[in-house]
Every structure is written in C-alpha cells, then in structure tokens.
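Sat 14:20. Reprocessing the chain from the morning session after the first attempt stalled halfway. Input below, unchanged.
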Amino acid sequence: MLESLNKVLILAPHPDDAEFGLGGTIARLKEMGKEVHVAVFSNCEKSTPAGFEIGAIEKEMYASFDYLGIDKEHQHILDFEVREFPSKRQEILEALIVLRKEIQPDLVFLPSSSDVHQDHKTINEEGIRAFKHANLLGYEMPWNNFGFTSFMYVRLDKKHLDTKIGALNCYETQKHRSYSNVDFVMSLAKIRGIQIQKEYAESFQLIRFIQM
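Finished this time. Tokens:
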C-alpha cells in the first residue's frame, strides 16, 4: 500500500501525537522518499508543565520534526486552544479543507475513531469529513483508546523504532507521562510485530482504502 502512495498527511491534534502514534512509520516513509506533511492543531501552551517556559513544547516539536526529517515547508502549525477543539469544530473543518486543497494527499493519518480525548475525537470526526475521498488510517494511542482494532500494520526495522524514540526524546516536557518511556514504546512495537510475525510494527485502524 505505502509503495503506491506519494503524498502523506498526518493530522496531529497536539505536538508529539504524530511521533507517539506513528513515529516509526514516519521514519520508514521518509526512507522511502515519500512527501510527508504534518499538521499540528495546537501548540499546547496551556499544558506547559511547571518548571518550563511557555513555548517550550512548541520548540520541542520543531526539534522533533528536524530529527524526523520533516521539511519545514511540510510543517503546518495551527493555533487552536488545547482541550477546546469541540467548540471550534467548524473552524477546524475549514482549516482541514484548506489543507486538503493545498496538499491533495494520497493518504491521511489521524487519531483513531476509538480515541476518547476530546481534541483527538474532533480531529478524527472532522478529518473524516474533510478527507472522505482519501485513504484514511487511524493511529494508535493506547492510553486514549477504548477498543482499538488493528487491521493495518506497517512493519518496522529497529532503525525506524530508534528514530521514533529519538524524536520522542526531544520532548523534555513530556518525560513525566507514564507512556513516555522507551520500554513502553518498544513493548508496543514488539506486540504489534508479533501479531504479524515480524520483529516490530505499528498498527492502524483501517478507516478507508480506495483502490484506484
């Protein structure tokens, strides 16, 4: 599937969502020479942990994108307030339509339909509306997912997983989170790999696939 697609757009409600959800797949897509765009919908200033300056999360995001090799012209940063996405649903849909027209992606990654976080859920629902004629995959965030179903897998090599971990390590502000550790990232990749008889993998909800 990935071989036949050239333009990929990742919809990330917040900084680090793309890295957690599919950092290894991003590494593999870049290795394959694909055009990878990432749209982040909030800089999460309101979520800045104690002890960090306002703007620290955004700086970490740019450092992570540099680490992943995301070209600057393919970084699309919006300014919606964290945890308030449901009240901005129409504006978010309109922003998504602008991205659709500008990028015309072959494949769109977005939070899965089982993600219960209010911002993630809004991006999922409005993303499906905006990109209903594109290939759509929902990425996995186990701490937010109730009943995640894996029907699509991307096989990863250790180097892809190392790149994912390196990108996540850019986020010093998130190191306190229970899921923000190497053991968790490695364990999940191993579980998904075992499910397809490979060493490592990332899994996705298959929302829509269009055979051209």
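The first helix runs from residue 17 to 31.
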